[in-house]
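Subject: Interface between my chains keeps coming out wrong

I've been trying for a while to get a sensible model of this assembly. When I model each chain on its own everything looks fine, but I need the whole thing in one frame so I can look at the contacts. Pasting all components below, labels as-is. Any help appreciated, I'm running out of ideas.
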Amino acid sequence: MANFYLDNSDLKHHLTHPLMKRLVALKERNYTDAQKYDYAPFDYEDAIDSYEKVLEIAGEICGDIVAPNAEDVDHEGPHVIDGHVQYAAGTQKNLDALVKAGLMGISLPRRYNGLNFSLVPYIMAADMVSRADAGFVNIWGLQDCAETIYEFASEEQKQRYLPRVCAGETMAMDLTEPDAGSDLQAVMLKATYSEKDGCWYLNGVKRFITNGDGHIALVLARSEEGTKDGRGLSMFIYDKNNGGVTVRRIENKMGIKGSPTCELVFRNAKAELCGDRKMGLIKYVMALMNGARLGIAAQSVGVSEAAYREALSYAQERRQFGKAIIEFPAVYEMLSLMKAKLDASRSLLYETTRFVDMYKTLEDISKESKLEKEERAEMKMYQKQADAFTPLAKGMGSEFCNQNAYDCVQIHGGSGFMKDYACERIYRDARITSIYEGTTQLQVVAAIRHVTTGTYLNMMKFYESQEISSDLIPLRNRLKTMTEIYEKIVTKVTETKDPEYIDFHARRMVEMAGHIIMGHLLLLDTTRCDSFRTSAEVYIHYGESEVTKNAKFIDQFDIEDLEFYRMK
Amino acid sequence: MSLKIIVLAKQVPDTRNVGKDAMKADGTVNRAALPAIFNPEDLNALEQALQLKDQHPGSTVSLLTMGPPRAAEILREGLFRGADGGVLLTDRAFAGADTLATSYALACAVRKIGEYDIIIGGRQAIDGDTAQVGPQVAEKLHIPQVTYAEKIIKIENGKATIKRRLERGIEIVEAKTPLVVTVNGSADECRPRNAKLVQKYKYAKTVSESQNQDNDYLGSILDSRPYLKLNEWSVVDVDADLQQVGLSGSPTKVKSIENVVFQAKESKRLTGADVEIDDLMKELIANHTIG
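Reply #2:
Try treating it as a single job with all components included. I did that and got this:
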């Protein structure tokens, strides 16, 4: 009887952010669909009302079906039967419910039977599904692979595949191979064109493929014989109905056990080219990964939420030394920091989502008609901000998720180490978020150029210029001081022009930027809704000490000191 | 073969999560404290109807509910899940009805709807728990009834095959259509509200609800989309006899209601030792609490 949308007012707060008015108007092309479709909104208020009503459905399914199934799914897991995946019973029930509720193809256009929702409510649904069952969100959330088909496939392919996704067929993204993990340029799965049959055939092995037996898969394969790097790779669409791919095994994982992680064998699997040859890695995988990273950022926030709630309710109930343990400073500090990290990472998640949605929507419009000069500039700006914020949201969000899961177990004490409480599963599920779709270390690689080129600094300055409640000015002043420290340190590091030295300190600088940006976001949130005040206070306290700590470390560090760290 | 299906549904106070203020001092239900919901077994009934619709393309599912004007929520809830339309039976004269008067009113409405192949309702409502309305509707319409249904397996050649869930097992029966079926809570759960249908029908309103419409654009949408107009019928609309509806048609008179509070009078504490459990079982068997 829980509703994960209605029991969390922060979601509505983010759903009704001031930028949404423009975003939704763009997405709805000024509400022209209302003439053509009986389920299209006729104005902004109508659209937000629809978003809310649909999120209420998702929230109810999460609370009443997905969350109660999570424990059984974790124990049962999926199985391989005759080379195909059979989900755990609970997983299948979850999926059936979400499909029947029409929660597939949420952000796809209506002409393909999608709901044409902004990315914001879609990510919000992913946030709630992750809170309910972090493993399940992988299966349901792979629907965002359809975005890649929508962006790059031919119209004929879109018409064939996208309505199937909206009708509930699941997807997979087949990239990783035994010898190609973080380094996807090494992908070897072979694609051969048959002149006789007029189609491509795939041969080889893929590994660690989430939902590898999904109905429609995007497969990265080497189409150019004799090549060795990323320029020889193309993207293909594999339709399970054509056969040719079998699941050899499902990995036995630490967490997200309901999500089938498959080893796939391709034997003359018929496939069709998606987009242009040789653009597979360079263009399409990058788009796919950016979408996936945002998805993991949402998953991280959802798991953080679950961890915080479990910890809070345990700390309120558990009594020691004659009182509830939440009354002890050591415990309430942990809890308030968990909440602050949760709120901060969620604010960053939705800020990033809006940036991504703004530029993608403008880009989509540009395919229909030429953008005005200002609109083009706007698109470029949001694209840059999306590029800068996505690795930050994924990187820091997933680290906070892990920290919250850790503290959740800690607050449970010995009981948390037993299999009897949900926190144990949350702890195992959280662990993958900072690893897949690019480890935190790789997020730092993507983020560092926004440190060195000043994107983050510009954003800090932008946030400083936004209007906030006057009583928050002292907090903002502390962020300004942190920014001065950040600027100084970044200059010191980049001035060396030593790539190894910059790499060595990259994570510290990226995190400094993250703390300052999240601090600003919480101040803006508090201005709109006072319930964020505590988190803003707590987070800025925390961020301040982290920023100072990192600055001190870098300040005291000479290039020669690297020698102590180089391991052979 | 397409079917015309009628689903009987009732809006009830959610008695499953009863708090301290669920009853008023005078022993009547405090409706303000309990959220109004779609009676759970009526949702099971709706699911059976929707499954029949899935099996028989072209079928229509109409909801029929009796209640105050706000019971129109039930019709919308049904539309959100896949029903095609519905009727709200509402009139001050219907108020205070017991099961006899209710089934009379519903039967009148069914006659007014006209053609139908099957009427499906929940076994009973969680407020009154009588399980009488479905069977009485069947009697008044002079058609067969199958109660305690868990699944309507199929309908073909004018016959319905139905699985019943009984206390000591299951029974598969056949009955001629048209008929009334009442569905158990053990039947398939109702499918969720659907995202597109919610958006399509969220402005569906009865005439009395749409009178308060102040948004011009919404007003024009309501005019151009006839499916947004929910039927609202009165005593006159269904040609009902005023003597047989509402309070005057209800022989049941509630003499008094007691607010029963369960509390342990004598409690025992057991340590869980085998011998204690053994003794307790013997004691409970001896005083016929169990066995």
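Reply #3:
Confirming on my end. Chain B has a mean pLDDT of 90.
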